[in-house]
Each structure stands twice: as structure tokens, then as C-alpha cells.
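During the reporting period the student researcher (J.K.) took over the structure-prediction task from the postdoctoral fellow and processed the backlog of single-chain submissions. One of the processed entries is reproduced below for the supervisory committee.
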Amino acid sequence: MGSEAVEKAFADIRAALAVLNAEVDGCGSEPFSAADPLAGLADGSPDILAGAREAEAGLAGLKARAAMKYADTAHTLAPPGMPVQAQEMAVAAEIGCVLALGPPARSCPYPTR
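J.K. obtained the following C-alpha cells:
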């Protein structure tokens, strides 16, 4: 996927998601409320929703920045004389494949350069 730091960051995100899912299931390391676990879960779930909203906004920003960096880099690496429209279509296809299908989409049938 990339550097060791990138791999670790995504592993940490996956671990955090597992913790949050356990909390939503009521199986977290400690209940939201020891006195009334069900009421505690009802009170804690909106907190998880609010945190998820914030995390989604951060991930959306990260995806936008990564897409722009890829587009800029692909433009720089494009052979001289390659039509701009063809470059834009190739970049859009590559980004679309990765976002829709995941990392194996690197073998997407659309040319990238």
C-alpha cells in the first residue's frame, strides 16, 4: 500500500473501528453506564455518531487531497503531446476504479498513462 507509516495508520483506523463497533454492540471494555447499561448505550450511541461524522469529514478531505495529488503527478508524468482530455479521462478512470473497487483496481482496464 505504501510506506510503513501509511500501513500503520490504516491498521490503527481498522483497530479503532473494531473498538467502536464493540461499543455499539454493548461489548466494549467498559459500559457507558455501569448502573444502567442499556440507558448508557442509548446515551453513548449519539456520541459515536457525532465522532463518526467528524471522522468521515476528515477522510473525505484526505480522499480529495490524495486524488488531486495523483492527478497532478499523473499530469507531470504524462508523455509530451498527450491530449489533455485523454489525461483527464485516464486520471478519472484510475481514481474511480480505486474508490469503487479498492486497491486491486490498480489493474483497472483503463489506461493511466
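The committee noted the following: The first helix runs from residue 4 to 24.
J.K. will present the remaining backlog at the next meeting.
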